[in-house]
Amino acid sequence: MTTQQNTLHVDLDERSYDIVCGPNVLEKAGELFAPLLKSKRVVIVSDSNVAPLYLDKLCGFLEDAGLSCESVVLPAGEATKSISNFEKLLEDILAMGIERGTSLVALGGGVIGDITGFAASALLRGIDFIQVPTTLLSQVDSSVGGKTGINAKAGKNLIGAFHQPRLVLIDTQSLNSLPKRELLAGYAEVVKYGLLGDAEFFAWLEENGQALIDGDQELRREAILKSCAAKANVVAQDEKEGGVRALLNLGHTFGHALEKECGYGGDLLHGEAVSIGMVMAFEFCAQQGLCAPEDGERLKKHLVSLGMPVDLSSLPCQDWTAELLMKHMMKDKKVKDGKVTFVLVRAIGEAYLSREVEDADLKTYLDDLLKRSKA
Ligand SMILES: NC(=O)c1ccc[n+]([C@@H]2O[C@H](COP(=O)([O-])OP(=O)(O)OC[C@H]3O[C@@H](n4cnc5c(N)ncnc54)[C@H](O)[C@@H]3O)[C@@H](O)[C@H]2O)c1
Ligand SMILES: O=C(O)C(=O)C[C@@H](O)[C@H](O)[C@H](O)COP(=O)(O)O
Ligand SMILES: [Zn+2]
Fold first, then answer.
1. How far is CA 89 from CA 72, 99, 351, 352, in A?
2. pLDDT, mean of residues 94-119
3. Boundaries of every domain in the chain
4. Where is each 3-dehydroquinate synthase C-terminal domain found (predicted)?
């Protein structure tokens, strides 16, 4: 069995950690976790889809290395990132009688990573956790960087903490069981790295995206490593999003507003919202004369060629208005003195932050978009 593995490093002083990526690296969980743990005890948090596939395997590898393994399994899906599920998760873990040396392990996608990391940040005033991401989205984005949290009635990810993992273990083989819709949703965050600062990577994705989605293991590994390296570099410069880290939010101010409006029940996945949100960012910039319209068209063409959503017309949730979406955008964590910080684009590979967007211009764009999507 191949275990060709690569290691990247997230450089954050005493909170630094490795990202270990490769096929079948799950088998190495015991030897990789053991030196990092403060005690031999780990609690694995997973979801109802992932647990039947990988929980026993992971536990087995940990037990082979002399570690003890308990688990909590949450329902699958975005709705799990709620205050009530968070409360239940904390109570369930506390009922196990954990100590400060106990570590949590997030085994699953971004939902499990986000809620588990947040639980780790809060339990006993902070315990360690390890990320074992099993979706493309979580392998290229959510497992790295320490943003943890849950959704609130007011909006997406509004309750949380920065809490870095001790290790990210990416077994690229786990993507073989991932449904195609989820793979494509994760691919949106891969495309994001090209758009925000690496036009060459975007061109590489235009060339290789289809084969990657179709299952080429080597291309997947390359794209995951490239994405993680880009994210690690940004996070090392700006751990708590005082500046440059906000670029990782390209497409998210629009995307999170759409997610909030669709509810968190699976009608619109996070990555799908990001796909549409990035196209909206390019369209808005083209309308404002900030970016050539051809760049947005090129982006759309690539996303459409893979079967990804690029506009609102296909979505089952359709009750939105420009005012409603703008109200949701005002809940964005990048709002300062009542103004949203937007991630805008000059071209593919050239994103920048702006607080100059006028409400009237945004409303004109959204009104026009909504009219087009209902036509
Ligand atoms: N913290 C961050 O920096 C960050 C970054 C990006 C996204 N996010 C968050 O991540 C979440 C989305 O993550 P996601 O797209 O991974 O969704 P997810 O965690 O809901 O996983 C998607 C679906 O795939 C299933 N699944 C996971 N791994 C599988 C596998 N290997 N085989 C079969 N099924 C599998 C899950 O059970 C779920 O049904 C959102 O809440 C988003 O806000 C956070
Ligand atoms: O890590 C970051 O920083 C990101 O913005 C990555 C995003 O892909 C991710 O969706 C993140 O959770 C959004 O952050 P938020 O602060 O807008 O909730
Ligand atoms: Zn995202």
1. 8, 16, 38, 38
2. 98
3. 6-176, 180-374
4. 186-335
270 part of the active site? yes
Q: Answer yes or no: is the C-beta of 151 below 6 A from any ligand 2 atom.
A: no
For residue 128 the two structure tokens come to 């360690």
Q: Is the dihedral of CA 349, 223, 45, 131 positive or negative?
A: negative
pLDDT tens by residue, 166-209: 999 999 999 999 999 999 999 999 999 999 999 999 999 999 99
Cα gap 55→331, rounded to integer Å: 36
Is the CATH number 1.50.10.20 carried by domain 6-176?
no
For the cut 80, the answer to whether the pLDDT of residue 2 exceeds it is no
CATH for 180-374 is 1.20.1090.10
Residues 108, 242: Cα–Cα separation, whole Å: 29
Assess whether the C-beta atom of 198 lies below 6 angstroms from ligand 2.
no
Two domains, one topology: 6-176 and 180-374:
no
CA distance 72 to 120: 13
Q: Quick one: which of 126, 131, 135, 158 has its CA closest to 146?
A: 131
Count of alpha carbons within 13 angstroms of residue 98, beta-carbon side: 31
Torsion angles phi and psi, residue 196, rounded to 5: -80, -25
Cβ atoms of 276 and 93 within 8 Å: the answer is: no
What is residue 100's three-state secondary structure?
coil
* E strand map for 137-292: 147-152, 155-162, 167-171
CB 118 within 8 A of CB 112: no
Could you tell me if the CB of 249 is within 6 A of ligand 2?
Answer: yes
pLDDT band at 353 (very low <50, low <70, confident <90, very high): very high
Q: Is 40 an active-site residue?
A: no
182 among the known binding-site residues?
A: no
The contacts of residue 247 (CB under 8 Å, 6+ apart) are: 196, 197, 234, 343, 351, 352, 353
Q: Residue 333 in contact with residue 157, Cβ under 8 Å?
A: yes
ipTM topping 0.95: yes
Q: Phi and psi for 288 in degrees, rounded to 5? A: -85, 0
